[in-house]
Amino acid sequence: MSEILDDSARRGRGRARATSKAELERIGLDLFIDRGFSTVTVDDIAGAAGISRRTFFRYYESKNDVAWGDFSRLMEGFAEALDRAPADASVIAAVRDAVRGFNQVPSEELARHRHRMIILLKTPELVAHSTVRYAAWRAVIADFVARRLGISPRDALPQAVSWACLGISLSAYEQWIERPDADLLALIDASFRGLRDVFSAVVIDAEEPA
């Protein structure tokens, strides 16, 4: 990986300028992987991308945001995946499939995906920043659950499910990081199977008269 990144750095001095948010994200992530998140600056990313610091801020508000990539677009895709879920699919099955899709990357990108998750989950200065991202992720799930059940997203059950799904997903990531030979999608499937059983029981209990 380092020789690839060294080449990127060399090209940064005479390369064509980064022309998309995705390209800038890739350059930034390469630098984070090679040097460590904490040591990379906005100026480093801008320089490697062949753009000015001012132009960098047209794409991202901070270095922290680069680690997440185009999060708004990802959330839009996540919500659309839930909207496309078959009406006869259970709530948990629909969320599981959407989470799987969120993490379904080409085999050649798996190493980068793992590195990204290591950076997001293990970098202290990103932990607090990630809280806002997690809240947006949970809101997508809470909205979907609420629509399915005909209740408010702020009600206890949609909120509980959204928190549980976040915990399950983070747990799957943690296991994947610790076990490089493991299959991330299989870990997600295994985790959601347990939640499905619990959620089904909770919904039945909620529907029964007191």
Automatic annotation (TrEMBL):
Domain (HTH tetR-type) spans 18-78
Q: Which UniProt keywords apply?
A: DNA-binding, Transcription, Transcription regulation
- This protein's species is Microbacterium terregens
Report the gene name: mftR
Under InterPro entries, the record lists:
Homeodomain-like_sf (IPR009057), HTH-type_TetR-like_transc_reg (IPR050109), HTH_TetR (IPR001647), MftR_C (IPR041347), Tscrpt_reg_TetR-type (IPR023851)
Task: Give one Pfam family, short name only.
Answer: TetR_N
What PROSITE patterns does UniProt report for this protein, alphabetically?
Answer: HTH_TETR_2
Q: What is this protein called?
A: Mycofactocin system transcriptional regulator
Instruction: Indicate the residues that the entry says bind DNA.
Output: 41-60
Q: Where are the transmembrane segments?
A: none
